[in-house]
Write a structure and sequence with these properties.
Chain lengths: ~270, ~270
């Protein structure tokens, strides 16, 4: 039984990884063939780095992700603080609306924002592009920040804040000294989640980008529409290596922290 | 200082960029270009009943395959030694960190008529088979892309199942089938419901997977919506009506799903 489990696990891992490894192998293939490896080359990588559209959309993606995740972290953290203090009914109403972009299919969120932007574009001086992309990204990022920060309040002792004030802290100082450190892990994980969602998003960006400002996923999509372009294989390889590096480093840091803090990291 | 006010900036954002756009979808669905009330858009959706049926059907198959594939994997993960769990979980989830366009593109090159699978078949004198641009390819793409969405919630519920419960059941005469159906399955129900929603919602609304792997002949709801907003048949009113129907379908299916799950523990 144990052996059967291992074989099954191996098969599923193969299913998950073989397609990616095939992409990686063929990123070094001399010819454009997708099935015969005819010789080793770095040609596609050179072409990739000289491809201005890819480079500029990569830069664009990073700028948008940084702005959107910072703004949504601030907006979302403040919101979580306020919502936590509200009474049951308004709290429930707001949380239900906040959950909508998370539960709704991405295409519906994208289409609904597109309708709004078209409406504004017709009446004000709004153009589809950088600004609409940033607004759209903030909109789908904030709920993740709120959903990450809110549970931290549940774990916090509500009297700590009052105690700090009783002991002579002003409200602002009490906030900085007591509440902020307690919710910080939620803020950080919310920020990271928002940042990765922004980097990775295609569907919502696709409906809100227009032709002037493109993100990397949109560029990848238009590349896949053309028949064969081995540059995508090269790009996939680079992204895969970056992802592996980030995850390995993250795992390394976490396991070191867990060793140092004993069992403390268990609940995080 | 009123802490509730911290939520004010977000509340404005939420109303303008989450609530108003969704209301606009509803308004567009029930109006003509001239702004008059109509039910024509909604009734026009009926013409596409076959696409709706196909989308629901393919998404259901993909969800079922994901559940069956993920269940043993999640269980094995949850029963591993603690220090190996983290690493294995990372290995299973790693492909999800690649942009899903690249993952889908990988299958495009594998399944293509000149792709590596048909090449391997050719070596043993078989084929070439028509693999790409079929419904099977679309389901495969869905399973490949969304399998981690099923594994993660299942794992997080199963890891909380106490080992002694399983041992107690077998001590008291339960066979392994009995343990599965009377102990593990009931306790992992919340994981199943949230996993099913996390796979079904993106699967039923995708337009990328069907376009890249299904060719032009396997349109799904997502393609239909995309065509009304960015494609050749520009008609945002019909697009909004289709989106609205899609949201209702998802709502109905999620309500049915939630009947099976305990009220308090809905992950997401």
């Amino acid at each position: 039984m144990k052996k059967l489990g291992k074989i099954y696990m191996g098969l599923v891992l193969m299913f998950l990884y073989v397609p990616i490894f095939v992409l990686i192998v063929f990123s070094f293939n001399e010819s454009k063939s997708r099935s015969v490896f005819s010789g080793f080359t770095f040609e596609w990588y050179e072409k990739l780095f000289r491809n201005e559209i890819i480079i500029s959309s990569l830069v664009n993606t990073i700028i948008i992700a940084v702005i959107a995740s910072i703004v949504s972290t601030i907006l979302g953290t403040l919101a979580a603080i306020g919502i936590y203090r509200m009474r049951k009914v308004p709290k429930a109403v707001i949380m239900n609306i906040t959950n909508m972009p998370v539960i709704n299919p991405e295409i519906v969120t994208g289409v609904s924002l597109m309708l709004l932007f078209v409406f504004f574009a017709a009446r004000m001086n709004l153009e589809f592009g950088f600004v609409t992309l940033v607004i759209a990204h903030i909109t789908f990022d904030v709920p993740y920040v709120i959903l990450n920060v809110m549970p931290k309040f549940g774990q916090m002792n509500p009297h700590l804040y009052e105690a700090a004030q009783d002991l002579g802290c002003g409200p602002f100082k009490a906030f900085i000294k007591v509440i902020l450190p307690e919710i910080m892990p939620g803020v950080v994980s919310g920020f990271l989640m928002a940042f990765t969602y922004s980097l990775d998003d295609f569907v919502i960006s696709y409906f809100t980008s227009g032709s002037t400002s493109q993100t990397l996923p949109i560029t990848i999509y238009s590349m896949t529409r053309r028949k064969i372009s081995p540059e995508i294989n090269a790009l996939s390889t680079i992204i895969f290596v970056v992802v592996v590096l980030i995850l390995v480093i993250k795992n390394f840091i976490e396991s070191r922290a867990a060793k140092r803090g004993g069992g403390k990291g268990e609940n995080a | 200082m009123k802490m509730k006010l911290f939520a004010a900036p977000y509340l404005v954002w939420m109303v303008v960029f989450i609530l108003v756009p969704l209301i606009m979808v509803a308004v567009f669905a029930f109006t003509t270009d001239g702004g008059e009330f109509t039910l024509d858009n909604i009734s026009d959706v009926g013409q596409y009943a076959n696409i709706f049926v196909r989308s629901i059907w393919l998404a259901l198959i993909a969800t079922a395959i994901c559940l069956v594939m993920a269940y043993p994997i999640s269980f094995m993960l949850s029963r591993m030694e603690k220090h190996r769990q983290g690493t294995m979980l990372m290995i299973v989830m790693l492909p999800m960190w690649m942009n899903f366009l690249l993952r889908t593109y990988a299958w495009m090159t594998l399944l293509g008529n000149n792709g590596i699978i048909n090449f391997l078949f050719g070596l043993v004198g078989l084929g070439p088979f028509k693999l790409i641009n079929t419904q099977g390819a679309v389901v495969l793409g869905m399973v490949y892309n969304y399998l981690p969405f099923m594994i993660l919630p299942l794992y997080s519920v199963m890891v909380k199942i106490d080992k002694s419960l399983i041992e107690a059941a077998s001590d008291l005469g339960c066979g392994s089938v009995g343990v599965l159906f009377r102990v593990i399955l009931p306790l992992s129900l919340p994981g199943i419901t949230s996993g099913v929603t996390m796979v079904f919602v993106p699967a039923i609304s995708t337009f990328i997977i069907s376009r890249m792997l299904g060719g032009g002949s396997n349109l799904l709801i997502g393609d239909l919506i995309e065509m009304q907003f960015l494609g050749n048949s520009y008609n945002p009113h019909l697009g909004a009506a289709i989106s609205l129907v899609l949201m209702v379908i998802i709502l109905v299916i999620m309500t049915i799903m939630n009947q099976f799950s305990p009220d308090d523990q809905v992950l997401m």
